[in-house]
Each structure stands twice: as structure tokens, then as C-alpha cells.
Amino acid sequence: MTVPIPEAAIATIIAAGRRLDDAGWVPATAGNISVSLPDGRIAITRSGRHKGALVAGDVMAVDGDGRPEVQGDRPSYETLLHCGIYRRFRDAGAVVHGHSIANTVLSRAAGGSLTLAGYELLKAFPGGPTHDVSVAVPVLDNDQDIPRLQRALDARWAGADTIPPGYLIRGHGAYLWGPDMDAALARMEALEFMLACELEERRLR
Ligand SMILES: CSCCC(=O)C(=O)COP(=O)(O)O
Ligand SMILES: [Zn+2]
């Protein structure tokens, strides 16, 4: 018998999907969304669903290693990236992933990281009490082999002094996390705002 997913967790994921879709960051069936549950499981979107039109049945549970509770159920193709975040950052309670124009274009042009400096909105990231800081957002090469991509992330995090609560995958999208969904979404909105500014500045140059 499977343990039901708390209704509040399902409602949180459905509402987050609508918000990401309203912003235009989850075209087609792009993006995925999860929350960690008090019993250690992860509630996550099923693969291939439109994130702006999620219903309760589009959310399922996996264990900390991404294994579905019900054999044959298909969670997000990128589930192991969510698991990697919850495993490494014990205070993470929610993870959001989207494919925006800005994160796609800028990650394609970037090297191994993308530095954001001088933005007031950097305050939305932890440890940034003033706008007078810079944050180097890691950029990983895209990889259809998700376990290999997660290993690359683990290696990057292991060698880092400070780790922002997000990263970009080249030509693919952005992952952000926070202690809860409100925080994860706020960080995504802040990052996307700054990336949109970067794009605009490049157009003006
Ligand atoms: C059509 S988007 C390609 C897959 C992807 O990058 C994504 O974010 C959605 O995958 P999922 O399996 O979570 O639906
Ligand atoms: Zn994706």
C-alpha cells in the first residue's frame, strides 16, 4: 500500500507550475517541480506533463534515490537532479526547474559560470545582505545522462567555497531551490530578472 502524498504538497506544486507557466518559463512540457516530504520522500511532477496545467495525479512520490513508490510510474526525467539537491543541501525543501529564453541564451554563451554583479536583487540570494556583491552561478554542460550530470554537479560543489542556491545547464535551463516553495520561486524570479537584464544590456552594447 502506498502512503498518500499530503494534499498541501500537491497544491504547492500545482500552484508553482501555474506561476512558472504564467512567467513563460516552462514552454511545452519543460520544467519540473518538487518538494521534500516530512517522511523523507520527494513529491515530484511526472514526466512529460505541462506544468501550467498540472492536476493532482501529475504529482507522484519517489524515495531519496529517485525510485518511484509504484513500479512503472515515470517521475520527471530529471528526478536525480532534485535528489542531488536534497541530498547535498539538507535545508532544501523545494526545487524548481524552468527553461526560459534568458537562461537558455545566456548559458549557451557562458563559460563554466555566469557572474551577476551589482544587482539589487542579489539580496534575494542567501548571504547577500547588500547589492554590492557578485554571485557566480555555475553553468554545467547539458547531458542526457542525468546521473553523470549529477556527478559533475557534486564535483563542482565539492570544490566550491560558496554555493549559490541554483545553477544553469547550458542550452537547457535553470535549477533553483530554497527551504520552501516560496523561497525557491523567489530565487528563480530574482535569477530570471537578472538574466533578463543581462540579455537587455548585451543588446544595448
Ligand atoms: C520537453 S522539455 C525536455 C525535458 C526537460 O528538459 C524537462 O525539463 C522536462 O522533463 P520532465 O521529464 O520533467 O517532464
Ligand atoms: Zn529541463
UniProtKB/TrEMBL annotation:
Keywords: Amino-acid biosynthesis, Lyase, Metal-binding, Methionine biosynthesis, Zinc. Its cofactor is Zn(2+). It catalyses: 5-(methylsulfanyl)-D-ribulose 1-phosphate = 5-methylsulfanyl-2,3-dioxopentyl phosphate + H2O. Signal peptide: none annotated. Pathway: Amino-acid biosynthesis; L-methionine biosynthesis via salvage pathway; L-methionine from S-methyl-5-thio-alpha-D-ribose 1-phosphate: step 2/6. Zn(2+) binds at residues 97, 99. InterPro entries: Aldolase_class_II_sugar_metab, Aldolase_II/adducin_N, Aldolase_II/adducin_N_sf, MethylthioRu-1-P_deHdtase_MtnB. GO terms for molecular function: methylthioribulose 1-phosphate dehydratase activity. Residues 11-199 form the Class II aldolase/adducin N-terminal domain. PANTHER family: 3-OXO-TETRONATE 4-PHOSPHATE DECARBOXYLASE-RELATED, FUCULOSE PHOSPHATE ALDOLASE. Catalyzes the dehydration of methylthioribulose-1-phosphate (MTRu-1-P) into 2,3-diketo-5-methylthiopentyl-1-phosphate (DK-MTP-1-P). Belongs to the aldolase class II family. MtnB subfamily. This is Methylthioribulose-1-phosphate dehydratase.
